[in-house]
Amino acid sequence: MGKKDNLILLNALRIFKNTSENVVAYKKFLKLNNIEPTKIINSADFRYIPLMDKSNYLLKYKIKELVPFSKLPPIFSSSSGSSGHPYYWPRGNEQEEKSINLHKIILKNIFKINNKNTLAIICFSMGNWVAGTYTFSALKAIANDKDFNLSIITPGIDKNDAVSVLKNFSKNFDSVVMFGYPPFLMDIVLESKEIGVDFSKMDLYFVFAGENFSEKWREIIFKYANLPNKLNRSVSIYGTADAGALGHENPFTILIRKLASNNIDFCKDLVGYNSFIPTIISYNPIETYFESINGQLVFTNNSGIPLVRYNIKDQGIILTYKEISVIMKKHKLLKYLTKDISKWKNPVVILKGRNDVSVTFYGLNIYPENIKAGLEDSKVSDMVTGKHIIIKDLTNNLIDQKLKIFIELKSNTVLNNNIKKLISDTILENLLKLNTEYRKLYNSIGSKSIPEITLLENGHEQFIIKKSKYNWLSKV
Question: I need a labelling partner for 249 at 20 to 30 A (CA). Which of 51, 217, 270, 422 fits?
Fold first, then answer.
């Protein structure tokens, strides 16, 4: 074990030790699992610490028992509830500091706009949900840092306000950074373009969070926002209400994802079989100790509620920079590792999604990403916004299953049967290409497996983001 590996593990052990001594709930949890904390002293011991999750730990104890010294932190935020009811998470000072440092890295080291007069437009919900207030808190601290020239405005999820900021106010700044949920930022860009906002005169950057998207989707939003297709114009953050921001994209992770999108053999060696290319996130292993156990991500992090071997229920794998370099060498891709890209050497998490964020159809998983690929296809991408809802319905007196997809059209698309057939065919084509299990099902049952497409007008109430996230799935 190298010096840095030792430091990484020592920090994880420190979090365990402090939690076992200072958190009432964790003391009870360890006792219940017959763990004597004083005997956990090295990496071999660490593996015997029981995994915690929301059901076996967080929901078992009162909130005061879950925080150090039973002292409640100053801020609480709600999870989005994408996989159940919202949970109210305390945010501690250490968590806030990590967020500040992460956003500094994005603005200074990736976007390189710290010396420019920059407007940050926060388009996350500013209510209970974590993303909006968490981002605002970090950016407010950065705005007071003498090394930055940053101003903040918070339209939240009011699309008209955000469009107005772009049209009427952003011209007062050298650079503009939009923070938000990917489909909502796409909405804002499309509407801004429709009313004549000239993105060619804007030095624009994006910070996304909350959802996986494809490299094709990134190219589409860049096209509409008149941005050069460069590696330092957008960053996706891997953030959770559980622990705040755990990692983010950088030029290296975006590069290898783009290469994987265009090289199927490299993709298979990098991420294994998957029906979509996962988000690839760099993280600081000193701050967060990640493990991949039976394909699920487990982390140790000193959050508002200290989390030790916490199973977040995300599917994923962990790779080091060296491991990725070996795969790149095998596929003769090392030529792409320029000096600016190869400096990003932290390990990465490859996020393969969640089993509970999919529709089960004839026993197989249909993910939103499978449908997005069809809607991002160049044959139809100019007709649709990309928003859709997937439903598994029961027909024929509840005997047969039917996969139904509701899709939002762009405002300039006139609905007719030819357009509906083209969109339907394109979705089917991409499903067959991306999802091996679906392809087997199609070969077995034929037309019964073909999704039933319903096209809805732009701005339909089903597609309005009312809280923090847009629900791609409806299970009935």
Answer: 51
Residues of the chain with CATH 3.30.300.30: 359-475
State mean pLDDT over 13-41: 96
What does pTM read for this prediction?
0.83
d(CA 408, CA 459): 8
Work out the end-to-end distance of the chain between its first and last CA atoms, rounded to an integer number of angstroms. 50
- Parallel, antiparallel, or unpaired for β 150-153 and 118-122? parallel
Those residues whose C-beta lies under 8 Å from the C-beta of residue 258, and which sit 6 or more positions away, are 215
pLDDT digits over 195-254, tens only?
999 999 999 999 999 878 889 999 999 999 999 999 999 999 998 878 889 999 999 999
The segment(s) of the chain belonging to CATH 3.40.50.12780 are: 91-353
Domain 359-475 coded CATH 3.30.300.30 = yes
Is 455 strand, coil or helix?
A: strand
Between CA 417 and CA 429, with CA 423 as vertex, the angle to 5 degrees is 130
Q: Is 91-353 in CATH node 3.40.50.12780?
A: yes
CA dihedral 274, 279, 282, 284 (to 10 degrees): -90
Query: Which one, of 103, 85, 78, lies nearest residue 304 by Cα?
Result: 78
Question: CA 128 → CA 103, 179, 323, distances in Å?
Answer: 21, 17, 40
Coil, helix or strand for 268? helix
